[in-house]
TrEMBL record:
Residues 331-429 form the Nicotinate/nicotinamide phosphoribosyltransferase domain. Residues 29-156 form the Nicotinate phosphoribosyltransferase N-terminal domain. GO terms for cellular component: cytosol. The lineage of its organism: Eukaryota, Viridiplantae, Streptophyta, Embryophyta, Tracheophyta. Catalyzes the first step in the biosynthesis of NAD from nicotinic acid, the ATP-dependent synthesis of beta-nicotinate D-ribonucleotide from nicotinate and 5-phospho-D-ribose 1-phosphate. Helps prevent cellular oxidative stress via its role in NAD biosynthesis. This is Nicotinate phosphoribosyltransferase. It comes from Kalanchoe fedtschenkoi (Lavender scallops). Its EC number is 6.3.4.21.
Length: 561
């Protein structure tokens, strides 16, 4: 296979170039050993080329909710497009398998690629539900088995963290800016990079992760830490004190003095007299120095010493001085304390200053809150009432603290056109056999009503035609649906040699927009944090009958003595 032109053939006969996975550690060796032992056993039995169909899906929505966002598809396709074992990798596999393995098997591995695979998937950024296949992989059974672990790995965390981000967005509301600040607390470099990418996809506005900004084009945000503030001891440390007016018309030669004068004005202002007293001068020096460096985007962390007695007064003095030179300060960040109370009090002071000193929009100054925020704290802030405009969220977001894993599975559902089923005493672990087609049915109000799976050769549901939808395993759970819109969920993202038209992989921003639009389509009761309404996933009457026929056919019959 040409390494540079590794994609499926285009209409003109040329091949598209698909880059390798973002993380260079995603190679054919990023798999479990038993995938190679099974591949050898398939090969030894002469079964390795048998055409198999596998479903990748999950069994339960995360975080106690009733929806999930599918993510990770692009990385899966990048892996598939570039899947080839090197000689070094083959030598390592040889050393890891028993010495009885035949040399011809390793010759077979040298020729393994994904040119005979077909991949059907739901579009990345789509709201999805348990049991519905996120990906359907069709191809030689040994090759598909080798892909199982990396595909599950690439989808699992991506979908989990995107869903976590979407849930935070839902609680925060559309109007708030959400900033992902989790790199330092993420599970290693890849955890940090993946979290930044998929949090942006799930509705966050920006990241502090510079590498993710460069790699994925995500907007960057960041100010300074407590260390910067505490590194100053006195305004005397500021050497370069001049600041040019915003329009370039003049220069203030002593911005430090201007800031001190503004602080005095605030302290003696009748509405603030008794509110603004003596402040920490080292903090004032830090804010002044930072404003000199970034006069057009000055945003200060105000809780190093005391928010109301020092941080807010010092910030307001610097912001007022900047306004006299034509600049508009960005706002403050609160990283500790009672965020509802502090944000409300800060907003009152900003509005007083706007009115008292006639500074336009001073009262609308951005207030950012951080400090180990999660869904629960956002919800609590909403109930208490607050004046926060933006949230910087890290640990609980990027680590998916509330749930460690999504629990994706990869199950064989057909081989050599023979449907297969995996049985279990736990009915939630019973797989749905055969190659399927999946549809989303919409009601009169425009909301999705139900997802339905059908056999590959069944006719598609039609708008306006009544259709019986059945729970896959519960006989009594069934309903007729008359869809007002029918959307087929699975599309071909890797046609192999099938000749099917391949869907293009959209850029990250387009996927993000899709995710936001998808969430807007869902009924609010499916989305709420407490006691959300389960979304219905069903099968056609024909597929229901076939599932239970195969179940009875495969389950051994017991004998009572």
């Amino acid at each position: 296979m040409d390494e540079k032109a590794n994609g499926p053939k285009l209409a003109n006969g040329a091949r598209q170039v698909i880059d390798g996975p973002t993380n260079p550690m995603v190679t054919p060796l990023l798999t479990d050993l038993y995938q190679f032992t099974m591949a050898y056993a398939y090969w030894k039995a002469g079964k390795h080329e048998e055409r198999a169909v596998f479903d990748l899906y999950f069994r339960k929505n995360p975080f106690g909710g009733e929806y999930t966002i599918f993510s990770g598809l692009e990385e899966c396709i990048r892996l598939i497009a570039n899947y080839r074992l090197t000689e070094e990798q083959i030598d390592f596999i040889r050393s890891s398998l028993p010495g009885t393995c035949e040399d011809s098997f390793f010759d077979y591995l040298r020729g393994v690629d994904c040119s005979e695979l077909e991949v059907y998937a739901i579009s990345e950024g789509t709201v999805v539900f348990p049991k519905v296949p996120l990906l359907i992989i069709v191809g030689p059974v040994a090759v598909v088995q080798l892909l199982e672990t990396p595909l599950v790995n690439l989808v699992n965390f991506a979908s989990l963290v995107t869903t976590n981000a979407a849930r935070h967005r839902f609680v925060a509301g559309k109007s708030k800016m959400l900033l992902e600040f989790g790199l330092r607390r993420a599970q290693g470099p890849d955890g940090g990079m993946s979290a930044s990418k998929y949090c942006y996809m799930g509705g966050f506005d920006a990241t502090s992760n510079v590498a993710a900004g460069q790699k994925f084009g995500i907007p960057l945000r960041g100010t300074h830490s407590h260390a910067f503030v505490s590194s100053f001891t006195s305004p005397d440390e500021i050497i370069e004190k001049s600041l040019r007016h915003c329009d370039g018309s003049s220069t203030c030669e002593d911005f430090v003095g201007l800031v001190q004068a503004c602080l005095n004005k605030l302290q003696w202002s009748p509405p603030l007299c008794g509110v603004f007293g003596e402040t920490n001068q080292s903090e004032l020096a830090a804010f002044t120095s930072y404003a000199l460096a970034f006069p057009s985007s000055f945003l200060a962390l105000v809780d190093t010493y005391d928010v109301m007695r020092s941080g807010i007064p010092n910030f307001c003095a610097v912001a007022l001085a900047l306004s006299e030179l034509g600049y508009k300060a960005g706002g403050i960040r609160l990283d500790s304390g009672d965020l509802a109370y502090l944000s409300t009090e800060a907003r009152k002071i900003f509005r007083i200053i706007e009115k008292e000193f006639n500074v336009p929009d001073f009262g609308k100054m951005t207030i950012t809150a951080s400090n180990d925020l999660n869904e629960e704290t956002l919800d609590a802030l909403n109930k208490q009432g607050h004046e926060v405009d933006a949230y910087g969220i890290g640990t609980y977001l990027v680590t998916c603290y509330a749930q460690a894993a999504l629990g994706c599975v990869f199950k064989l559902v057909e081989i050599n056109k023979q449907p297969r089923i995996k049985l279990s005493e736990d009915v939630t672990k019973v797989s749905i056999p055969c190659k399927k087609r999946c549809y989303r049915l919409y009601g009169k109000e425009g909301y999705p009503l139900v997802d339905i799976m059908t056999g590959e050769n069944e006719p598609a549901p039609k708008v306006g035609e009544r259709l019986l939808c059945r729970h896959p395993f519960s006989e009594s759970k069934r309903a007729y649906v008359v869809p007002q819109k029918v959307e087929e969920l699975l599309k071909c993202y890797w046609p192999g040699s099938s000749g099917n038209t391949r869907e293009e992989l959209p850029p990250l921003k387009v996927i993000r927009e899709r995710c936001i639009q998808q969430l807007e389509l869902m009924r609010r009761d499916h989305m709420r944090r407490l006691n959300p309404t389960p979304y219905k996933v069903s099968v056609s009457a024909k597929l229901y009958d076939f599932i239970h026929f195969l179940w009875l056919n495969e389950a051994p019959v017991g004998e009572l003595q």
